[in-house]
Amino acid sequence: MNASAPKTRLEPLSRHELRARPGEELIRFENLWKAFGKNVVYEGLDLSVRRGETLTVIGGSGTGKSVLLKCLIGLLRPDRGSILFDGEELVGRTEEEFLPVRRQIAMLFQSAALFDSLDVGENIAYPIREHFPHLDEAEIAERVAHKLEMVGLPGIEKMRPADLSGGMKKRVGLARAIAIDPAVVLYDEPTTGLDPINTRRINELIIKLNEELKVTSIVVTHDMQSAYTVSHRMAMLYNKRILAVGTPEEMRTSTIPEVRNFVDGMTGVNAS
């Protein structure tokens, strides 16, 4: 093996180990730089995520909130900087070396990203087959049923994505994300396009999964009411860096002008 290749200790690391020692740092973005051509997204971004917490990243449209999640799971590569997951460097890993990372970090995409050609059960089974090839069909079916029950949609395995409402698609996408029992769940705008009832359901599920599965959660959202509801801490992206980090109450009462303007403005939008 090339001595300069990134370490791959993540592969044998157990989910129990990743969930142990709550409150300690699990993920660190350090001096992160990212640009798409002339569009500079980050200039030296720093952010730390603690084990077992729900950290919500807020900020205006186009500030790079979703890019942060995609850099974490290797869908995008930063231009410079470091991303540490449980002390292991992720930047510079090959696609193959990212596989054990994606076994531990799952993502609910904004659109839910379900496969239209597969029914609900097969959508949820897809990552299970990829990461647990030793499981037989009965075990896969049992796991699929359990995850659907966790998100409040028992017995819909044979439905097609095209027949689901927007809220149901998000919940099926969440069931697929947790199907591999990840240590970390990433939520990309989980309540966008949902009515108040489904927004509340998704918020309740984020809290439930954090508490029952002991997962670490990173939520990207512009919905301040959701952010206040689900977060242990919040981080605001502004001007290519993290401007402020704090508890929901600290962010609500912040004296930083940019934070006040954003929080007050978005709360007003959400309330209208």
In short:
The chain has helices spanning 15-19, 65-72, 95-104, 120-131, 137-150, 166-177, 196-212, 224-230, 248-252, 257-271; strands spanning 25-36, 39-50, 54-58, 80-85, 88-89, 105-108, 184-188, 216-220, 233-238, 241-246. By secondary structure, it is of the alpha/beta class.
Number of separate strands: 10
Task: List low-pLDDT spans.
Answer: 1-16
Global outline: globular
Question: Any idea of the CATH topology?
Answer: Rossmann fold
SSE series: HEEEHEEHEHHHEHEHEEHH
C-alpha end-to-end distance = 58 Å
Query: Strand count, sense and closure of the main sheet?
Result: 6 strands, mixed
Quickly name the level 1 CATH class.
Alpha Beta
- Structural category: alpha/beta
Walk me through what this model shows.
This protein is α/β, with parallel strands linked by helices. The chain has a single domain, classed as Rossmann fold, CATH 3.40.50.300. Helix content is 39%, strand content 23%. The protein contains ten helices and ten strands. Strands 6-7-8-3-9-10 form a six-stranded mixed β-sheet, with helices on both faces. A four-stranded antiparallel β-sheet has the order 2-1-4-5, covered by helices on one side. Strand 9 and strand 10 form a beta hairpin. The radius of gyration is 19 Å and the shape is globular. Mean pLDDT is 88; it is low at 1-16.
